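Thread: flavin-adenine dinucleotide complex, take 2
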Amino acid sequence: MNNGLACQISFECFPPKTEAGLANFKTTALALSHYRPDFFSVTFGAGGSTRDGTFCTVNTLQQLTNMNIVPHLSCIGLTREQLATIVQQYQSMGVKRIVALRGDLPSGMGQSGEFQFASDLVKLIRDISGDYFHIDVAAYPEIHPQTRNVRDDILNLKRKCEAGADSAITQYFFNPDAYFYYLDDCARYGIAVPIVPGIMPITQFTKLSRFSNLCGAEIPLWIRKRLESFGDDIDAIYAFGLEVIYHLCERLIAGGAPGLHFYTLNKSTMITALLEALNVAPISNSLNAATIK
Ligand code: FAD
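Output below.
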């Protein structure tokens, strides 16, 4: 890593849906590329709902940043054949790394497909492309909402590693102890892959609260109460959010986290402020506004 931190950084984005969203996305990606990320990752809608969007966005980022671009791929709702075609397409595009997931089908959307779990997808990728891809999988320091207990959750990560995963990226969390206890548990079960914490910036409350309920991430009461009390004061939310996430990142780095994976939500302002607070200086490289078409 050459970003000035003791760990790598990576940025997760989603495929923009409108022309305006695309223009904003390019500006964001360009701004973030100056912080020397290990990679940008691009989310994938479960059941293939944003499949084309993911391809296009991977392409756009490859051309715009010349960096390592990592598509997410979720297996739920797709057939073995569809998944194999996608994997082969990525290989032919020079993609070297994939985040392999199960995904969640939106309610009312079709069949769950041939594969039930992310471990099946990891195995499929290994079966069709050997060691070509670096495979990341999801990990849950606060336990996946459909898992019964910590042990089952850790055993699931172990299954994904045994199927061939090289590393894991976590669901976001706001309590660093959740991550450190999780690492200890994983080590006890013989999981040796790097587990990179996912970092969610706090820039608003309502959506964050709704999403956290869905994905099982806890917003600690002391954070929740303050965010509620700020109401529509986005400046106050931003200042508080920046401070909270800065201290979280500091603790994670001090505790030896192998990386920080930022959920950018296609916005760069808080992420760049965080990185600069962490002493990651941007480089000005050959990319510039003229590159944005
Ligand atoms: P799995 O690892 O398959 O686990 C799902 C559930 O099944 C867990 O409860 C697990 O305990 C259980 N389970 C697994 N195997 C077995 C078994 N053999 N027997 C019994 N139970 C089992 N979603 C998207 O749609 N698109 C994305 O781009 C996306 N990106 C993500 C990126 C990250 C870093 C993370 C953390 C999540 C992302 N998600 C994405 C969300 C993810 O798809 C959901 O959390 C989903 O509910 C679980 O996916 P998984 O890959 O963890 O599934």
